[in-house]
Amino acid sequence: MKYTFLLFLFSSIGAFCQNIENLNFGSDTTLDIMTWNIEAFPKAGQNTMDSVRKIVEALDMDIIGVQEINDTNAFKTMVLTINGYSGFAKLNYIVGLGFIYKTSSIQINSIYEIFTAPQYWNNFPRAPIVMDMNYMNERYILIVNHLKCCGDGFIDLGNTNDEENRRLESVILLKEYIDQNFPTLKTIVLGDLNDLITDQPNSNVFQPILNDPSNYAFADNAIALGPSSNWSYPTWPSHLDHFIITNELFYETQNNGSYVQTLKLESEFAAGWPSYEAIVSDHRPVAMKIFPDMIGEQAEVIDGGYNLTIYPNPSNGDVHFTLGNPMDEGSILIYAANGTLITDARCTGKFTWETQGIVSGIYYATLTIGNTIIKHQRIILL
Asked: Rounded to 5 degrees, what angle do the CA atoms 152, 277, 59 make?
């Protein structure tokens, strides 16, 4: 995946610079999603509400998953002042979670909490919120979270009150929930997950996700592995705010122009980080841009009468491709779920992908004629 880190540098007058309209991220042709812990919202009252509103308007995101809402009424009041946006928030114990979304691009199917029963309170002190929505007629599932904080960096499996163990159990429960309820849907887990992707396996609360690379990935992994200057939590330098995506999204997030970045909003404030932290949050937001045109589809005919049949699919052996008329010659490109090119073959009429030595998982085949992409189709190797 291509990751870009941008630092917005504008001259400032007062809390905000006069050129805040130059701060932007979203576009009409991409799905733009952000996760943002807006610490103890509104921590500075109306000043916080005004600052967050201006940031949301300038960034032009499609969806923002927010954490640490102390006052849901203030949150709803603020959202009402943002032209073209709506929102949802739910208070859990002390702080709540929610979404802000653009009404012109996002069609909501449903929004609801999960893991609300008392037996889950220890693992989810803030019940996750699911947004079931459509963007450009494609269905997506977003699950916003704020996992338990703190700990000593080690997982005490015998202690149900150990912070790392609580986060580990939360990750296991979330993965099981997605596997059971959304096995074929494009699903994104986002939020302040309060731990590091880069911990060693025996102390990594995300190991259940990392152990299943055919089905899950951290879209922000390059940020976690990169310089600390791009991490989401500068106060105690660490990267805690994440995007976990399922394999239905692997292909399109590898598309040229899709990327994840940390947004250094403190550059918009006259005194930099101290002003931003005092008025808005101790977390930077992390944003993901997805170009939705590079998606593995199951439809047989894409355009121009060109035809591609793949069989068997799913397969536990070789995979056969039949290219229908009127195509004379084309290319079959096969990609692993992480975007690695496996095969690039010229073919006419028929082609067999010999899969001996290829690990099971999700793959994607692309049919091209000249420089034109005709079709994408997902392949499952058993």
From this structure: 110
Task: Write down the domain spans for the chain.
Answer: 20-290, 307-381
SS3 content of the chain, % helix, strand, coil (to 5): 20, 35, 45
CA 273 to chain centroid, in Å, comes to: 25
Q: What is the pLDDT of residues 300-349, one digit of tens each?
A: 334 455 667 888 888 889 999 887 655 557 788 888 866 678 888 887 77
Among 183-192, 251-260, 319-328, the minimum mean pLDDT is found in 319-328
Q: For the segment 97-128, what is each residue's pLDDT rounded down to a tens digit?
A: 999 999 999 999 999 999 999 999 999 999 99
Q: DSSP states of 147-213 as a string?
A: ------SS--TT-TT-HHHHHHHHHHHHHHHHHHH-TTSEEEEEEE--S-TTS-GGG-TTHHHHT-T
SS in 3 state form for 14-82? CCECCCHHHCCCCCCCCEEEEEEEEEEECCCCHHHHHHHHHHHHHHCCCEEEEEEECCHHHHHHHHHCC
- Taking alpha carbons only, the member of 380, 269, 244 closest to residue 319 is 380
pLDDT tens for each residue of 265-296? 999 898 999 999 999 999 999 999 998 743 33
* Class of the CATH domain delimited by 307-381: mainly beta
CATH architecture group of domain 20-290:
4-Layer Sandwich (3.60)
197: Cα separation from own chain's centroid: 15
Q: How many CB atoms lie within 10 A of CB 314?
A: 12
Mean pLDDT for 51-80 is: 96
